[in-house]
Queue: 4 jobs
Job 1
Amino acid sequence: MLRYIFKRLIILIPVMFGVALLIFTILFFTPGDPADLMLGNMASEEQKTAWRDDHGLNDSYFAQFGTFIFNLVTKGDWGISLQTGISVTDAIMKRLPATFLLAVTTTAVAAVVGILLGVVAAKYHNTWIDMIVRVFGMAGISMPVFWFGLLLIILFAVQLRWLPVSGWNGPRYWILPSVALGLGSASVILRVTRSSILDCIRQDYVRTARAKGQTEHMIMRHHILRNALIPIITVVGGCFGAALGGAMILEQVFSINGLGRLMVNAISMRDYPLVRAAVLVLALGFSLVYLIIDLLYAYVDPRIRFEFSAKGG
């Protein structure tokens, strides 16, 4: 197992290098001059040229990329924000906890709602209950997150005044953003859970358990749900990664000072060092999430654990 984790961490190096190369190239060839946005139209061309020289923006593509990678690898330096002049590392670390917490609460909402409704839909397959749950799933997938978030604000914050409109200052502030982003992901988990459980229900070991007289609750818990967990774990992990990216939109709607909102502002201002760092952090988060998912496979399924042991992992 440790050898497998080490191999996956080694593979992260070329992956992160590829992401860094891709985002750097896209930003380098993106139209627009950061000097125009930072200094304004009243600045002279000499002032803009001097500003670009100070920030290394007049260097060639390869010189800029080489400097970026060298500083990142040798010093752990992400650079300085073009907009604020502060360290990119400080800006990222200040905003990252809010985005990470939003992703955690969103995934919790999505997993609980999606798995429960998926189990119910599979248990009452082809009944009116199953039909209602499937309609909910289709509605959740089809509904834009920002629009659903605005509806929740209008209903629960403006009209009923049960919850705050915006911000991220405590548990009461977490509810609306988590529900707005989580119910869409719950629809995906619901469909996967339903399909996976229906596939397991038809297996011979389930019929054997029923023939032995085990209760339906025991069969669902110990025989069906445990064997259906692999695809469920995959989609739940994917929802966590999607929540990290989807926070870009929702943080604007709910005025949350997280990494997504920081990225949107940085993109609009052509703050290249900040955008590069934020994308790399999100890419690293995605990669680590899927590493954890693979480890959970081994925890849930003894066959995968045996495969790791047989390979000397």
Note: DSSP finds 14 helices and no strands in the chain.
Job 2
Amino acid sequence: MARMDEAPIFVVGSMRSGSTMLRLILDSHPRIAIGAETGFMGGLLAARRIPGWKHGAEWFDRIGWTEQELDARLREFYTGMFERHAESQGKARWGDKTPFHTSHMEEMGQVFPDAVFVGIVRHPGAVAASSRYRRRRPGRGSTRARARRRCAKD
């Protein structure tokens, strides 16, 4: 296990919750590197369970590996990738922020048992009112706008 001040940091929260701002704040720390969203858990989970195959959940067992051994290799692989990024930034500690990962915290904790999870929660009403989710006026090219123009001509 890594020392607490070396453990990976995972920022989790829903989209539009302020997780990017939190990532930028943490990334500004002289020892912490949290780059752009990676979605790496998609690859990690696919390595743990081969999708669409009846033996996909235990494929590694068929060649004499345990789940713990596979997780140790996956931890080594992904840690190496993120450490290289941190080192390129002159920083010692790495982390990741991907909203998609919020639903994979249990698996992340299994592979990275020393990880620190930082959760961010925003009021659901504020998320819904967020600029990305606000209903936009249809543009001239939208189906609704074209239908309105046709009706106005008739």
Note: The chain has one domain: 9-153.
Job 3
Amino acid sequence: MALDSNGLRVLCRVGFAEEQKNYSVTYRFVQDAIHEQLPHDCDSLIRAHQLLRQHGQELCKRSKPRCVECPLRNVCAYGQPTAEAE
């Protein structure tokens, strides 16, 4: 699946790979992690790409993510409250 930066960020934040300093390395780690879980038909791959991109653009933003509104918050380490915030 071709991922843009939005989809890649979402997949990193929900735990498919840890974001690296090098974008290419992060991209490869995520691709390796999701490979076995991807649908095999083109329409499903396109839909998955679109949903990940939209989620990254609207909720899982690089700056000021809207974690409180996110339906993935319970499986996302990034959106979990820290001990300091509690």
Note: The chain has a mean pLDDT of 91.
Job 4
Amino acid sequence: MKPRIFLVGPPSSGKGYCVSSLVKDHALEHIRETWLLKTANARGMKCVEGKEGALDDATTAAILTELVAASRGCIMDGIPKNGAQAEAMKGVAADKLVVIDVPQAELEEFHANRLVDPETMQTYDKVKNPPPEDVVARCTTQAMDAEDKVKERLDPYYAELEAIKTTFGDKVLLIKGTTTTGGEAEAALYKELCTQLGL
């Protein structure tokens, strides 16, 4: 039987690559929190009658319980987001909580060193992969890579991660992530994930 997994990880950790590869290579259903209400309404689930907008944790868990039970294998992408949501989802029949693991300091350093060539959209790293001399003058730091913006995205995730992991106990599977996009690093990350999941 194909796995049914929660998969969480910070931005720029290789999580997106793993999700898209698992969906493509192993035909796992991709469950996104953003479309749960629409899906539940389309399937006539009673737990969403009269609901609009953001879903509370109990309703999200009720929808996931039904979707996962009907699935032949799925990835719940980026869910749960916090300890309270994790607690509400303990009853969902998931095999694993996969955590793509990258230390926060490593991600902050990655964003601090990232440069983009606005003409080609090629990304560079000031230390590991500096831009060539003929393009360095036009390379810029994107607004989303500013220290305050990076911390705004990362702090909530890391503040809740231990509570999420504690809730899932022995179902937690830690996989070392990577800030290197494309090539061997992401391929190795994905291979390790598949090995650990028995795929």
Note: DSSP finds seven helices and seven strands in the chain.
